[in-house]
Amino acid sequence: MWSDTKVRDVVRTPLITVNVSDNVRYVAKVMVxxxxxxxxVVDSGKPVGIVTERDLVAKILASDKAPENxxxxxxMSTPLITVDIDKPLxxxxxxxxxxxxxxxxxxxxxKVVGIFTQRDVLALERVCGYCIKPIKPRLVSRPEEGEITVxxxxxxxxxxxCAKTVGYCLNxxxxxxxxxxxxxxxxxxSG
Length: 191
What we know:
The protein has six helices and ten strands; from the N terminus they run βαββααβαββαββββα. It has about 190 residues and is α/β, with parallel strands linked by helices. It has two domains: about 5-120, CBS-domain, CATH 3.10.580.10; about 125-190, no CATH class. Strand 9 (about 150) and strand 10 (about 155-160) form a beta hairpin. It is globular.
């Protein structure tokens, strides 16, 4: 499936960081503002851990602790699980499964340069939000002949013909096309 794909082809940069002494309320705000599920924790510029949505839920929300009184260093997950930028993508996905983690920090020459997440894995194999048929993976630089897609602001992707049929996103109900094409009765299954 990803035989020639390397981690460098999918790594996301820049890496968002917080300081080990930042309070958890600030950490949560950064995650919301950047629309990310985890943030790297640094101490004097050196990566020391990661705070994830799960850390916030399990270690703060499920307890009676006040987020403004807890530091990122108190709830961060360690050790950091890393993968080299030149490793095959399949090896990175296997590492995520074996370590039971949703994100890997990506290193180049021993330095953390980015992140690879479970969301990135899912984005590699996209399907139409209406017909559920595959859409060309994002690693391919050009879509197949005739394959045109429309992406809603919520992130759901549709084949253009499907988008013209539904008109509004099935996920968030936003209008996704200006022109709706209704199929002829003889072109439908009930036709």
